[in-house]
Amino acid sequence: MEGLHNLRDRICDFDNLMGAYRDAARDKRYREEVIAFTLNLGENLRQIQRELLDMTYTVGPYREFYVRFPKPRLVMALGFRDRVVQWAIYRQINPYLDKRYIEHSYGCRTGKGTLAAAECLFNWQQLISRKDDADEWQLIKGDISKYFYRVDHGKVLETYGEVSDDTWFSWLIGTIIRNPEVPFGLPVGMKPDDCPRSQRLFEVGMPIGNLTSQETANLFLDRLDQFCKHTLKLHYYVRYMDDFCIFVKGKEEAKRVYAEIERFLRETLLLDISPKSRIQKATAPVEFVGYLITPHGIRMRKKTTRHIKRSLRFISASFALGAIGYEKAMASAICYIGMCKHCEGYNLLRWIEENFTLERGDAAMSQLDGPPCGGRRFYSIQPNEDGSVDVYLRPDDTGLIRVVRGVTPYDGLDDDIRARYDAWRESAETIFL
User: Fold this and answer.
1) 372: number of Cβ within 10 Å
2) In this structure, are residues 308 and 314 in contact, taking their beta carbons and an 8 Å threshold?
3) Residue 76 φ/ψ, nearest 5 degrees
4) Which of 114-118, 125-129, 302-306 has the lowest mean pLDDT?
5) pLDDT at 47
6) pTM for this one?
7) Residue 383 and residue 16: Cα distance in Å, rounded?
8) Is the separation of the CB atoms in 89 and 97 below 8 Å?
């Protein structure tokens, strides 16, 4: 397969940048940073274009926060401008790279989410359970230790060099991966929430939350996929990001395959297999991509079930207090209901039907007489260089944004906006995005 060519012209093309802006702004167009970028859209895109063409582009600051479920993860989010750049890259390289991946590589691919990965493993496990020699089959349940925090930058750039010899693209992807200001990597044996920033490593790691990190993670582990499929000749092999499962006939053969994969990861990719990895009976229950999979069906893990119940109780309480709106509350509930319907989740579905209710408390009902905000702040105050501020009002049913420009700040401005919301809207200027 031919490599990627002319990436400089394709990524920097203004139409591609405009499409990247639309992708980055999808479902986020009313966020403050997106509004600010959109107000001067043409010039902002041309500025990005100039910086990319002149090779003066640098990655902006990251916003760091932790996600605690299902396990602690350090997530790094970029500003909107940098997300536009990453979408511009993704739009040009993903169609080509996606064709390189094996069929049973899942994660961050269209139509290949957690449910598809679980169904693939379930179908194979059910097939093997019906064989006469089912007791001889083994399952290798593998996991790469701290994958995103331990990826070697040199190896990643070497992998990109195999798909494109474009020196400009090598500079751009290197600028994103090798950030001289923000360390992404963790020392061996340390967890994200145990490692202070001063001890993080610059030469390894990718930020969880970057669009390019998702693409890079799949591309880098495609080398493992190719090794397993073409060198080890494994048929029943499925991978979801850094988790993989392999069905192998014979315990000794399973041990050999496990050792070969461990050696390949250590010597070729400079990664370590997790101590949680193991070899078990092929027909025994296995946890994979958030589900418990057996030859008899796909079930929700007990840990996931407890999390969903806690989450729905919290949503009910937040709605009762007026902290969130009806649409946001129902969106979460519908998502959980959909998860139940795609596996053997009848009992959890019945629990949701019997216990999940949305009722406003008295304190919340008294607040609904004011401007509806759906649990979100319905205005934003943006400072100007001359000391004045612009007040952006949240869109109404027509989807239009209104702004009152050049307001002199004063004590009680927030209270005045809330108390005289209709008057502020009447004096506002309409913005078309």
Assistant:
1) 13
2) no
3) -125, 120
4) 302-306
5) 96
6) 0.79
7) 32
8) no
